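ingest -> validate -> predict -> emit
validate: passed (alphabet ok, no gaps, 231 aa)
predict: started
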Amino acid sequence: MKKTKSLFWRILLAIFLLLVLYQLWLFAHVCWWIKFNPATSAFMEDRLEVMQDKNPKAELQYKWVPYDRISDNLKRALIASEDAKFVDHEGFDWEGIAKAYEKNRKKGRIVAGGSTISQQLAKNLFLSTKRTPWRKAEEAIITLMLEAVMDKQRILEIYLNVIEWGEGVFGAEAAARHYFGVSAAQLSPEQAAKLAAMVPNPRYYDRHREARGMLAKTIVILDRMPDADIP
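emit:
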């Protein structure tokens, strides 16, 4: 009995140490990315694998561009659409989370997320697309790491460069060229608002570029953009 109990605690300790090491591994990556740009993300790797299952020669459309070469129109559009309190919160918009919970409860299914830009970045960089309690807990931990060591401008810069914007299309530069034939620096307010409207379902909107729901959301985002604060 004593041996069994001892073995149980050893296994528990080993699991705990592995979890700590994993968190340290994640934190080391976050610290590295304060100065150095991520070459890829977990979500990009997942999408590339799916694409190459269908076509072994498939490649992502992706090019990193620095913050000052991305139009302020797109920065305002993303904040207006995804996270109006981005510059003020510390990683979580508790009011937004409460509203999303209430909306989901009334609908009886998940129709709203309430995730901030920082949370979305944490998920895109490291995690799978599966919705599990473990993934949400890990997302929260990584979000705290990002907010602890990066300023808001750096978080937004990385987010704008790794976000999915279509079938194999990642980042602001690739999206601007894919949809409008211009650089990310040249995006107009209308173009930026349309890109922001695509974020919740980019692959669908890549195939349905005149979808009424997206066009309606584009108008709403355009209206909100002047009030959006950018870092």
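The chain is about 65% helix and 5% strand.
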